[in-house]
Amino acid sequence: MSKKPKKTLPEQAESCGCPDVDNAASVRVAVLTLSDSRTLQTDRSGDAVVAHLKDSGHIVAARELLADDAEPLQKQLAQWREDAKIEAIITTGGTGIAPRDMAIDVIEKCLDVELTGFGETFRRISYDEIGPKAMLSRATAGRMGRTVVFALPGSTGAVRTAMTECVLPILQHAVALAGRGRT
After folding, report:
1. Domain ranges of the chain
2. Dihedral sign from CA coordinates of 45, 59, 168, 136
3. Which residues, 6+ apart, have CB-to-CB distance to 153 below 8 Å?
4. Is the per-residue pLDDT at 10 higher than 70?
């Protein structure tokens, strides 16, 4: 199977025309790993999210690791939704179709607005990298109150793809739009 060459994204414009979007602003992000088998010491995917954020000048405001269970995830999301210091949440893990992969089911119930284009774009880019297996991911994003949420798969390759191609290019813009009127 031949793979298409990776497309280079245009550099993010200095201004998108929205007066309240600062593309140089640091975003305060909470990182959450969902796994029954990892610990914070063995969480390479969570480490990758943190590294991408820090390398891009963002602030990791919180980091947690939870088992793949609905109730703790709901509670953590609700807590971070109300925390004014957290502007975005990035989860990793629990996005597949295995019986324990419930992250997307829980996250979608918590979202006020779902960004369907995020998951579609992630799967399109992933298809170019890994082929039809990309369709097994249910990665998604959306807005929960005034907090932006990105739900990524648990593999380090998927995290790299999602962070560089999907999350980081829109993070400041999404946070600015979601937080309009934030006090």
Report:
1. 28-178
2. positive
3. 92, 93, 95, 96, 137, 139, 159, 162
4. no
CA 114 to chain CA centroid, nearest Å: 13
Hunting for tokens 């009127």 — which residue is that? 181
Q: Which CATH number fits the domain 28-178, given the four candidates 3.40.50.300, 3.40.710.10, 3.40.980.10, 3.50.50.60? A: 3.40.980.10
Tokens 């109730």 label which residue? 71
Q: Are 140 and 151 in contact (CB under 8 A)?
A: yes
- Spatial CA neighbour of 110 closest among 79, 84, 153, 83: 79
Q: Residue type for 48, please?
A: A
- For β-strands 147-152 and 140-144, DSSP reports them as antiparallel
In the predicted model, is pLDDT for residue 145 greater than 60? yes
| pLDDT tens for each residue of 64-122 | 999 989 999 999 999 999 999 999 999 999 999 999 899 999 999 999 999 999 999 99
DSSP type of residue 12: P
Q: Angle, nearest 10°, between helix axes 70-82 and 103-110?
A: 40
Whether the per-residue pLDDT at 28 is higher than 80: the answer is: yes
Check the CA dihedral 71-74-77-83 and report its sign: negative
What pLDDT shows up at residue 15? Answer: 57
The Cα 43–Cα 96 span in angstroms is 18
